[in-house]
Structures are given as structure tokens and as C-alpha cells.
Amino acid sequence: MNHEYMAQPGRLRRPGRGLKTAREISQQPIHPTASHTEILTAPADDAYRRYAIEANQCTTNLATFRAIAKKYPSTPPEQILRDLVASTPGAEGKWFAAAKDAGLFNVAIELATASPTDPRTLARAARDFAESQPEFAVAAGLASLRWISLGHGFEITGTDVLDAYSAVMKAASTASVDAQQIKTRIRELLMSTPTGNQLMKTVLAHHLTT
């Protein structure tokens, strides 16, 4: 199985050499924004290094990634994504959707296990890719349940728990992963993370005993 559906949070690669992080940008003296002429006339690699993140901020992380990828087509999408991730330390999970959108499924799961990621976004990804990318879907669904068990997510309900669980089990079946193995992993979550346990125990009690 290519996707580590039982993966634990890991270390992420550092940004491209010379690329500034958001924290470094915020600590710089205030200067006038680079002109369009400066950006357009700079060599592509230099323009990416100096302006890519600062000059292409959008309303969502996904939109920011798309804007930079479109403007700098010669830069590999994974490099762009990792540079963006490194510019927001501690918020790796917020780039999950961008990684998924780019088809970087292994990177998406790496990000989803590195820091809190919206459980509904993960469950939706698990559901949407249960057939086309079942290994990724299993990993995303388990990550959703993990973050729910840790108390993350806004006003999480039993429906959210069931959505994630159903997507995981469907994807596991498609990927020929033993259902009991998945249930064992979920039981381990319930034993090791007390915050969200009661909701998950109540909602999944019947499912985990069959």
C-alpha cells in the first residue's frame, strides 16, 4: 500500500532555498510593494524566490497555491506546495486541500497527520476518492476520525463521525484492506485520545463490535 493509512505525524521538508517564510516576511521593514515591472522583468527563478508567496496571497490556501502554480508553471507543484507549507509553520494541515487538488495524495496525507486538519474536509475527501484512490481515502478517513477523537472540528456531530467511518470502510473494501484491521485502528484511537472519545464511542459502538 503506497499510502501510510496508519501514518503518524512526521517531519516536513524545508522550503526552497532562499524562499522567505510568512514570519520572516512579517518581520521585514515595510517597503513599497514590488512593482509589476520588477516582477515581470526578473528571471523566473529569481521572481519565484523573491515574490511568489508575498505577491500571490489569495482568500484561501487552495486559491493561493493555484495562483502561484499558474504564474510559475516551470516550478514543480510539489515544490510550490512545500514552500507554502513551510511559510506557515504549525498549520500544515491547512494545505491538505491544495495537495489533494494537485493530485499529491501522499503529501496530502503527510500534511493531514502533521497538524490539525478539518475533520469534515478529510471525511469528504475520503468519500470522494473511496473508489478512485482508495488507499488515500482510507488514510484521509482515519485522519478525520483521529482529529475528531482529539477534539478538533467545529460543532462535530454523530453524523460527522458516521460520514468519516462509512467512507473509511468503503475505501478499505475497495483497497482490499481487512475491515477488522481498520476497526482495530479506530479502537486504538478511542483508547489513546480521551477528548473526543465519548461521542465516537457512542456513535460507533455497534459498528465496532460487529
N-to-C SSE string, H for helix and E for strand: HHHHHHHHHHHH
What is the percentage of strand-forming residues?
under 5%
What is the mean predicted local confidence, pLDDT? 85
Radius of gyration, rounded? 19 Å
Helix content: 55-70%
Structural class: mainly alpha
Helices, by number, come to 12
What attributes characterize this protein structure?
2 domains; mainly alpha; 0% strand; elongated; 12 helices; 210 residues
What do these coordinates show?
The structure is a single chain. 38% of the residues are buried. The protein is 60% helix and 0% strand. It is an all-alpha fold. The chain is built from twelve helices and no strands. The radius of gyration is 19 Å and the shape is elongated. It starts with 21 loop residues before the first helix and ends with a helix. It has two domains: 1-115, no CATH class; 116-210.
Produce the secondary structure layout.
Blueprint: H1 22-26, H2 36-41, H3 44-51, H4 61-71, H5 77-87, H6 96-101, H7 105-114, H8 119-128, H9 134-149, H10 158-174, H11 179-192, H12 197-208
Helix pairs in contact: 7-9, 8-9, 8-10, 9-10, 9-11, 10-12, 11-12
Briefly, what is this?
The protein is mainly alpha-helical and 210 residues long. Helices cover 60% and strands 0% of the residues.
